[in-house]
Amino acid sequence: MNINAVILAAGLGTRMKSSIPKVLHPLLGKPIISHIIKTIEGIDRISKRIVVISKHTESVRNVLSGKEIVFAMQTDLLGTADALKDGLKSSDSNFEHILVLAGDAPLVTQTTINTLIDTHIKGKNDITIQSFVAPDPTSYGRIGKDERGKVIAIIEEKDADENQREIQEVNSGIYLFSAMAISYLSDITVNQLKGEYYLTDIVSICHQKGLKVEAVCSDTMDEFIGINSRFDLLTAQKALQWRINLYWMENGVTLMDIDSIMIEPDVKIGSDTTIFPNVILQAGTVIGRHCVICPNTRIINSVIKDKAIIKDSSFIEDSSVESEASIGPFSHIRPNSKIGQNARIGNFVELKNTIIGNNTKASHLSYLGDAELGNDINIGAGTITCNYDGVNKFKTTIKDGVFIGSDTQIVAPVTINENSFVAAGSTITKDIPSGSLAISRVKQTNLEGWAKKRIPHLIKDKPKDK
Ligand code: UD1
Ligand code: CA
Question: Are both 308 and 258 inside the same structural domain?
Fold first, then answer.
């Protein structure tokens, strides 16, 4: 069996009112079209995948580069039938069936496509349409049937009369065609209302020729949401969010909310992890088991190991957090940071390109950039690495067991060796040998009676003891 898939993605997507091609708008972090490509990549029976693009959607090529895809060009946007015709110019010469998918309907699953293919082959159909029941069928083509329930046509919204508009079974834009059905593509005439060649017109043509047409109807619509507008995009996002969130709940993850938690498709989460509302986990993130991810946290492309806790309102990007570490609340972990086991990064601490060893703690109000910290270090509140001189970045090295007093500035490049101490309020500009105390603040002077001289009317003498 030789099935070629043609994905139609040449359209302008005018209803999105966007300068970006519709199929490249992100849906939970991935372009709309990438979702559908990923789905059909997993279906072995499809021997060739053709994506129809146009000069308006040329950038789709770059987004899908590296995939096993053939691109076909539609020169004039003359409708879905014309797009398919252009796509077929790149098909295998000996194809037996053509699976057509719309690039703007990204949520269809492999199971559904496989069932559609099975029905088509088993029933020896010429056209098998994936239809669904839409509570609001506006903007979808309606499935027209005769009194015996046989599919006779697909009627587009603009061409439908009042009765036909009531039909709730609609066309998903996903169909299989036999080579015989495809041969009638050229019989489609231009639709007078829209000036386009409607692929859907092939249904009535094939029916009239006595070919076998069947619709496989789904009673749920989530898989078939076609994205024409920003509202459709949100509807599809919500449907995908629910699908992903339900999957993780079924796999042992506790979600404290299903609507506000956004987990992108390429994320992994271990069992017994708990996720609070308003958490966003983005592509490439891997969360271990028994972790807690507190509200308002966003994690991008990072690894969080078992039993780590990410407290409220933290942002972690391209970094890793070892087991039992604690981050936040209000931490900013910038790219290339590694946080060791049982380490603690507390509130208003920012890390960038920084390694934090095991059991090391930076609990309050610090910036550590381009730094390498060993194990068992205590970083006092307000410690700042001065890593940038306006031109170059410099490294700070802090070895095991060091204690940095509060409000210290460390002017890089500098190395603070094992088990040394830095007194609070110091500005460190030189390496510190191991086991030393470094102190670099001005000695305190108290000028007694100074205040009274300066502002006598405000400073009253203490009453004499009786
Ligand atoms: C289409 C179907 C409708 C179905 C709906 C499902 C037709 C005439 N109508 O309507 O029955 O219910 O999808 O979502 O087919 N495209 C091209 N070249 C073109 C025109 C469109 O490649 O010249 C592509 C678009 O980029 C899009 C897909 O075909 O990915 C569907 O086109 P669109 O204009 O969105 O059709 P709908 O009005 O949604
Ligand atoms: Ca559409």
Answer: yes
**pLDDT tops 90 at residue 463:** no
Do 346 and 209 have their domain in common?
no
Tens of pLDDT, residues 385-444 = 999 999 999 999 999 999 999 999 999 999 999 999 999 999 999 999 999 999 999 999
Active-site residue among 35, 56, 97, 364?
364
Respond yes or no: is residue 457 known to be catalytic: no
Task: Show the tokens assigned to 239.
Answer: 């449907």
74 lines ligand 1 (CB under 6 A): yes
Does residue 443 fall inside a structural domain? Answer: no
Q: Is the CB of 356 under 6 A from ligand 1?
A: no
Most ligand 1 atoms within 8 A of CB, residue of 80, 89, 175, 188 to mutate: 80
Spacing, Cα 102 to ligand 1 middle (Å): 7
For residue 237, is it within any domain? no
For ligand 1, is residue 405 a contact (CB within 6 Å)? no
Residue 373: closest CA among 405, 347, 388, 351? 351
* Ligand 1 contact via 320 beta carbon (within 6 Å): no
Q: List the structure tokens of 249.
A: 């709940």
Phi and psi dihedrals of 81, rounded to 5? -70, -40
CA-based end-to-end distance of the chain: 111
- Say if CB 288 and CB 304 are below 8 A apart: yes
Number of domains in the chain: 2
Which CATH number covers residue 29? 3.90.550.10
User: Are 344 and 364 spatial neighbours (Cβ–Cβ below 8 Å)?
Assistant: no
Q: What is the per-residue pLDDT across 187-223, written as a single tens digit (0 to 9) for each? A: 999 999 889 999 999 999 999 999 999 999 998 899 9
403 assigned to some structural domain: yes
Task: Print the domain residue range for 301.
Answer: 253-438
- Tens of pLDDT, residues 254-268: 999 999 999 999 999
The mean of the pLDDT values for the chain is 96
CA of 228 to the centre of ligand 2 (A): 5
Ligand 1 center–CA 75 separation, angstroms: 16
Gyration radius (Cα) of the chain, Å: 32
Same domain, 142 and 205: yes
Provide the pLDDT confidence category of residue 466 given band limits of 50, 70 and 90: low
Amino acid at 166: E
Based on the fold, state whether residues 105 and 155 are members of the same structural domain.
yes
